[in-house]
Amino acid sequence: MFLHAGDTISGQEGKATAIIDGSVQDMFYIKNLEATFEKIKTEVRTLGKRGTQHKGTGWSGTGSMTIYYVTSIFRHMALKYAKTGKDTYFDITIVNHDPTSSVGQQMMVLYNCNIDSTVLAKLDTEADVLDDDIDFTFDGFDILDSFGNPRV
After folding, report:
1. How far lies 59's CA from each of 20, 42, 45, 139, in Å?
2. Relative to the CA of 20, which of 92, 114, 121, 141 has its CA 20 to 30 Å away?
3. Is residue 51 in some structural domain?
C-alpha cells in the first residue's frame, strides 16, 4: 500500500472563518496560516536513575498567518487595545478539504486567539500585492472532523 498523489491535500482547498465579537467573518484574505501545539515539560530527576526524565506539565498554542492587506479588522483590534486596554479574543475554524482526495476533510477550531502583532500601515513600491504577517496565541482547540484513511 502507498499514498496516491491525488490523496495529498492541496493548500488552496480550504476555508477559514473567525468569530470576532460575536460576528462570523469569512477569512478569505488568508495566504497561509499555521497553528502549533507545544508541550511544556519539566525535568524530573529521581533516585536510582541517572538520566533525566521529563513530565508533561502543560502546553502552549501559537500561530502565524500571512494575509493579503485588504482588511482592517486586526488594526481595529490593535487600536481598541491601545486606546482602551480592552483586548479582543476570537475563535478561528480551519477546514482542509480537497475534493480530489479520498481522505475527506479535517476541521480544526482554535479558541481564544489573540494577536501579538499586526502591521498598522504599509507601502511597498517593489511589491505586486501587499500582505501582513500576524502572529497570535490561542489557549484551546478541538478537532471537529478528522481525515480518514486513503482508498487503496
Report:
1. 24, 11, 21, 9
2. 121
3. no
pLDDT exceeds cutoff 90 at 72: yes
Q: Is the dihedral of CA 66, 69, 72, 78 positive or negative?
A: positive
Domain of 88, in residue numbers: 13-39+60-145
Over the stretch 116-136, which tens digit does the pLDDT of each residue have?
A: 999 999 999 999 999 999 999
Please check whether residue 86 is in contact with residue 80, taking contact to mean a CB–CB distance below 8 angstroms: yes
CATH number of the domain enclosing 67: 2.30.110.40
The answer as to whether 94 is a domain residue is yes
In a domain, 44, yes or no: no
How far from 116 is each of 56, 62, 139, CA to CA, in Å? 26, 10, 14
